[in-house]
């Protein structure tokens, strides 16, 4: 009999899992989604200018090619449209239980007891053989801890909870943060605001985004020319893997990446004083490189100022820094996500009664970023150490789903399975050795690592290696739960 599967989250990960089960003829699954619609991060991040800096044809499932992309780099509405298209085409929408939040999952010796809460708070517990977590790494906004934030008398919100009711036209706006999200919305906000003050704590490396629209002829070609989409996708993938990955591994293209970013800065920012304030003092790639061609030009506008003084507090009227006060009507927090708190605030209890929170007190980890000893039949998509700074996360999600699909038949003969502690220990050693080469370790603060500097979010190898590792059969790394 097919196992029953609970999938948590209806974003790129959860939908991919559901589609693959559906295509394998396994219909005994339910997708739990706390929001009223699917799309995950692409539903939440609807800020002006939201889009993806990975090309459309690669930022999509390998099994669902799409000829309709209107541009080289997709914008948020189009990505959401793609996910809607996939959910309908593969008949998974009807299996999503919307407005249902998973609060707790506890292994009871043979299956998972999954406790959900409906919108009215009513709880319900159901049993599933398998749980697949598809909640991602960037789903919980991180509001900063700046004194006085609650005293602000104007309107404030986080970039992933954009207040579309609030018209920015003519207003004095403060943006706190300048990461990939802020770089995308700052140019749009600048167009409307009376004055925009961008509060930058640390400059980012920025490289151009060579965006372009696909005209009807190109789209027709993608649709009708056999193999064209596949070849184009493969070319983008190989380019990212062959040139960007070595830069992050401090290899041959590291200098090239830096030169490209410095040239972009020189080309777009003529003022040497502003350029100096925008030049990072750490190696490119240590933080996520921003890929954008409109961010710098926005900062050179006369109605935009870049503030690099330290923020001291938020006052009822605006932002106070070590050098002065800035009166504003609106504050937008582009301050990122609580990325190292994987799966929080869900309570997940393994077979020995230990919670994931306890298990991960020194930082999250998982075998292949997918599974853990003592948490039988629990799988994660986009889990610890599977984020990329150089290629499409959809590729990684598909590798993870392949791995889960390979594990499912193995359950039939073995009951609940879990990773052997030896496999986990070997994985940790392998990861640590690869991590030592990477640029993320020192010299910058980033969402890739915990407060004490452990990189819990990123995958340190080539994605080709990750594909090979996840394609291995579950044996010998897995065993029946509780066996020694
Ligand atoms: P982020 O990269 O974590 O950036 C947060 C920003 O807020 C940083 O500039 C940070 O400064 C600043 N900040 C945080 N706390 C602050 C404080 N107390 N005072 C002053 N400044 C503060 O977040 P994000 O821009 O939302 O991006 C997160 C990730 O989402 C990206 O790295 C990327 O992986 C993904 N994303 C992808 C795309 C895409 O096109 N593919 C687009 C958007 C987002 P410091 O640098 O000094 O910490």
Structure in words:
The chain has 484 residues and is of the alpha/beta class. It folds into 2 domains: 5-140 and 338-480, FAD/NAD(P)-binding domain (3-Layer(bba) Sandwich); 149-204 and 287-333, 3-Layer(bba) Sandwich (FAD/NAD(P)-binding domain), CATH 3.50.50.60. It contains 13 helices and 21 strands. It has helices at residues 12-23, 41-44, 76-89, 180-192, 216-224, 228-248, 254-268, 272-277, 295-299, 356-359, 393-414, 421-435, 463-471, and strands at 5-8, 29-32, 96-97, 100-107, 112-118, 123-128, 130-133, 155-158, 172-176, 195-199, 206-207, 290-291, 304-307, 311-314, 318-321, 325-327, 330-333, 347-349, 378-380, 417-419, 478-480. Strands 3-2-1-7-19 form a 5-stranded parallel beta sheet, with helices on one face. α4 (180-192) links the parallel β9 (172-176) and β10. α1 (12-23) packs across α11, α6 (228-248) packs across α7 and α11 runs parallel beside α13. The model has no long low-confidence stretch (mean pLDDT 97). The chain binds NADP nicotinamide-adenine-dinucleotide phosphate (NAP). This is Cation diffusion facilitator CzcD-associated flavoprotein CzcO. Keywords: FAD, Flavoprotein, Oxidoreductase. InterPro entries: FAD-bind_Monooxygenase_sf, FAD/NAD-bd_sf, Flavin_mOase-like. One of its GO terms (molecular function) is NADP binding.
């Amino acid at each position: 009999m097919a196992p029953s599967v609970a999938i948590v989250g209806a974003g790129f990960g959860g939908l991919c899992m559901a589609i693959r089960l559906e295509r394998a003829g396994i219909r005994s699954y339910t997708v739990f989604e706390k929001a009223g619609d699917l799309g995950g991060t692409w539903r939440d991040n609807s800020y002006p200018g939201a889009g993806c800096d990975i090309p459309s044809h690669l930022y999509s499932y390998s099994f669902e090619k799409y000829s309709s992309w209107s541009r080289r780099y997709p914008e948020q509405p189009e990505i959401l449209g793609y996910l809607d298209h996939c959910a309908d085409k593969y008949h998974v929408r009807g299996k999503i239980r919307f407005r249902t939040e998973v609060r707790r999952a506890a292994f009871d010796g043979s299956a998972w007891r999954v406790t959900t809460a409906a919108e009215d708070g009513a709880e319900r517990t159901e049993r599933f053989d398998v749980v697949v977590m598809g909640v991602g790494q960037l789903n919980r906004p991180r509001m900063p801890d700046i004194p006085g934030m609650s005293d602000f008398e104007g309107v404030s919100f986080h970039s992933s909870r954009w207040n579309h009711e609030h018209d920015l036209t003519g207003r004095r706006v403060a943006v706190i943060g300048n990461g990939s999200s802020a770089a995308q919305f700052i140019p749009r906000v600048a167009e409307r605001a009376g004055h925009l003050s961008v509060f930058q704590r640390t400059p980012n490396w920025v490289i151009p985004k060579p965006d372009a629209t696909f005209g009807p002829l190109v789209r027709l070609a993608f649709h009708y020319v056999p193999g064209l989409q596949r070849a184009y996708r493969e070319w983008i993938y190989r380019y990212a893997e062959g040139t960007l990955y070595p830069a992050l591994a401090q290899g041959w293209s590291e200098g090239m990446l830096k030169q490209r970013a410095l040239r972009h800065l020189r080309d777009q920012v003529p003022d040497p004083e502003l350029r100096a304030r925008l030049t990072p003092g750490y190696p490119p790639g240590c933080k996520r490189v921003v890929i954008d061609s409109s961010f710098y030009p926005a900062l050179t506008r006369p109605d935009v100022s870049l503030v690099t003084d330290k923020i001291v507090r938020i006052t009822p009227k605006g932002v106070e820094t070590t050098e002065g006060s800035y009166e504003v009507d609106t504050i937008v927090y582009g301050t990122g996500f609580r990325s190292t708190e994987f799966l929080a605030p869900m309570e997940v209890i393994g077979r020995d009664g230990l919670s994931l929170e306890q298990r991960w007190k020194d930082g999250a980890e998982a075998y292949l970023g997918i599974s853990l000893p003592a948490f039988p039949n629990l799988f994660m998509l986009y889990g610890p150490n599977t984020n990329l700074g150089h290629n499409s996360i959809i590729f990684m999600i598909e590798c993870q789903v392949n791995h889960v699909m390979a594990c499912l038949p193995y359950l039939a003969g073995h009951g609940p399975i879990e990773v052997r502690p030896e496999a986990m220990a070997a994985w940790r050693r392998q990861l640590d050795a690869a991590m030592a080469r990477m640029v993320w370790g020192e010299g910058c603060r980033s969402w890739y690592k915990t407060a004490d500097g452990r990189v819990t979010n990123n995958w340190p190898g080539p994605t080709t290696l990750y594909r090979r590792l996840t394609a291995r059969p579950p044996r010998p790394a897995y065993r029946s739960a509780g066996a020694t």
